Predict the structure.
Amino acid sequence: MNTEKQLRWGILGTAEIAQKNWQAIRNSGNATLVAVASRSLDRSRKFVDLCQGHVPFPSVPRALGSYEELLAAEDVDAVYIPLPTGLRKQWVIRAAQAGKHVLCEKPCASSVSDLQEMIDACEQNEVQFMDGVMFMHSTRLDQIRHVLEDGTSVGRIKRIAFGFSFYAPEAFHEGNIRVHSELEPHGCLGDLGWYCIRFALWTLEGQLPSRVTANLISQSGRADSPGRVPTEISAELMFEGGVSASFYCSFLVENQQWVNISGTKGYLQVPDFVLPNFGSQMAFEVNNASYHVTGCDFNMEPNVRRFAVPEYSNSHVRAQETHLFRNFSRQVQSGERNREWPELALKTQKVMNAVYESAIAGGQPISPV
């Protein structure tokens, strides 16, 4: 029987990703969901009915017809905010002012200055801020760090490369908020590139690149969008010490989500660094290939080792989204604030905005520092 104190959550918005996090809160063991708010009471009722029918809470969360009502609720300690990026700033600040701890979906804000205001509001009101990058809470990261630091598997890191994309159908381009410039101004860069940037920063222990360059390959916008957003973009990040990173993200290429970390001794590859492949293990591989020439024989010999941790891909008490809510709830209940979480979110925002600025400037080098 779980004896941990329960952190009481509210969900501000009914985005699809909130359905996954409803279940994560239920599975966490140290949190419960009190209420869900939408600007439409009917919409919040439908959301609660859908999720409660699939993953029930002992006490049915309340359906509320306004965000203000949720923030005024005395039985809500923390709010998860999956609203569109263009709307997040005001509601994160209002949540902080209401004394609610804040879990904010990514990308966190439209600009670096907006995110700084959001973080400052949380700091001033003594509440925790964190962005919703689930893989940061996977136990696989601990194993990856151990291998990166063993000195022989990868050696000195020189290059990090990413591919993250999905093929969006025509209906997506006609109606999804991710192709509306006021709601999601960074398009695929915000939706997908944020993860690539975050993993690169994590790999290099928070070091910011000295400069970035980017290529805006394609862009589009739905009919009611004031402008166009990136639907395909590539970027190059240069770090001090001769380390480089690159990523390609797109709404026009079918599912891929890999990262390759290359060094002087070998390379480490994760095939599913954001959304784990279905199963009960989280894995990655290290390759230390060797090349031999003997007379007329030219042999490249792979030496592949597989590493895995016992962690479920999703919908489980040992899934990364559950770890996220468990870790956040535990942090709040400790009475201490984790300042590394907002700092890393701000660094990610700085790099993302620099990439966007470079892309719209035709590849001009930009410093995010």
